[in-house]
Specification:
Blueprint: E1 5-11, E2 20-27, H1 29-34, H2 37-40, H3 50-62, E3 64-71, H4 73-79, H5 81-95, E4 100-104, E5 114-117, H6 120-123, H7 125-145, H8 154-157, H9 163-172
Parallel strand pairs: 1-4, 4-5
Antiparallel strand pairs: 1-2, 2-3
């Protein structure tokens, strides 16, 4: 019997708004043995078009055991990024049973039994699949929340610090889904002077 590998990846560590989303994924042996076309093209989610990610998202869900964890902007502000990452890794490890847990990056954040692989989302299919699950889940959230806060155009930049997003924050201030603990370098001396 083949070793069950759980690939783990996240989306949204760097944005100044919205949640951070983790995904753990154990792909079925069937898709590996058959080397199905969709399996062969699995790679880092950032290298795929949004349309291709959406297509693969549904296929991956049908051909895997997976678990997705959302950490809200409030949790990130309250606990800090590292603790949220550690909690997410522990939740995935306790929810999904595998012989090996492989996490994209260079730190396991103190969670025992998790191996790290730099650029793992390009090298390990299970991590690639997890990266797609995390990315699509987060993008869908940001597109949906954009309907509540249309002035911030979250559907476009997904909460990352683009020039346009920065200008919109300068114009409207922070909203409920911004990470207040993140430091945004002001373009004017008075901007955010009241925010600790």
């Amino acid at each position: 019997m083949a070793m069950a590998i759980c690939g783990i990846d996240e989306a949204g560590r760097g944005p100044i708004a919205g949640p951070m989303v983790f995904a753990g994924c154990i792909l079925s042996e069937k898709c590996k043995v058959k080397s199905e076309k969709w399996y062969e093209i699995l790679t880092d989610s950032k290298k795929l078009t949004s349309k291709k990610r959406e297509e693969l998202f549904e296929i991956i869900k049908e051909n895997s055991i997976y678990h997705i964890v959302f950490k809200s902007n409030d949790e990130i502000d309250d606990k800090g990024l590292s603790k949220c990452i550690k909690e997410s890794l522990i939740e995935i490890k306790t929810t999904l049973k595998a012989q090996k847990y492989l996490f994209d990056g260079n730190s396991s954040f103190g969670v025992e039994g998790i191996e790290t692989i730099i650029k793992g989302d390009e090298k390990i299919k299970e991590i690639s699949a997890a990266s797609i699950l995390a990315k699509v889940s987060r993008d869908r959230f940001m597109i949906e929340i954009s309907k509540k806060y249309p002035e911030y155009k979250f559907d476009k930049h997904k909460g990352y610090i683009t020039k346009e997003h920065k200008e919109l924050i300068e114009k409207y201030g922070f909203c409920d889904i911004h990470r207040k603990s993140y430091k945004l370098k002001p373009s004017t001396p008075s901007l955010f002077e009241d925010i600790q």
